[in-house]
């Protein structure tokens, strides 16, 4: 089945924007499934990643400053919505799937746009679940987005690198045969559908 990668990524991003629109200022200190991060920190990371991928899409080179989170952004909710619009616009550029993307946080050498956007898609489906779980809301990933992201998630190495500081994903969670695609996707990226907040997040 052919899936339009740009459209699938846009659906995943818009789903996160909808979730974030439901966040209140009081929610920002809630703990998230991302170890050590409260919701404010998670949104700062998500915002910076949008900005970094947008910079890569317009071929600004390995611009590390574009990837730097603003941990104390006074308006993290508005900032997230703006960054999402910026990356969606950048990904609509003609020929973007064939552009070389510099992703300094992921690989030292540039990668084809198609591969880079598939990384972005996986990241924002996972972070969409993170936000939903933090808020205690159901997570309903767009079907095409999940169908495009699951094969990529299956190829993400699950080795010792996931235990290192700053790893993109925690070690994979075991799952039995026959689980839903949603559960498999999350498990492969180190997330358990049974996660519930247990501790207070960062202030």
Topology:
Elements: H1 5-20, H2 39-57, H3 76-91, E1 100-101, E2 111-112, H4 113-135, H5 143-155, H6 181-188
Antiparallel strand pairs: 1-2
Please characterize this protein's 3D structure.
- The structure is a single chain.
- With 203 residues, the protein is mainly alpha-helical.
- It has six helices and two strands; from the N terminus they run H-H-H-E-E-H-H-H.
- Strands 1-2 form a two-stranded antiparallel ribbon.
- Helix 2 (39-57) packs parallel to helix 3 and helix 5 (143-155) runs parallel beside helix 6 (181-188).
- The radius of gyration is 16 Å and the shape is globular.
Percent helix: 40-55%
Shape annotation: globular
- How do the strands line up in the largest sheet? 1-2
Mean pLDDT: 91
Helices and strands, in order, run as HHHEEHHH
Poorly predicted runs of 5 or more residues: none
Our count of helices gives 6
Largest sheet: 2 strands, antiparallel
* Coarse structural class: mainly alpha
State the end-to-end CA separation. 45 Å
CA radius of gyration is: 16 Å
Strand content: under 5%
Number of E-state strands: 2
Summarize the structure.
This protein is 47% helix and 2% strand. It is mainly alpha-helical and 203 residues long.
Provide tags for this entry.
single chain; 203 residues; 6 helices; globular
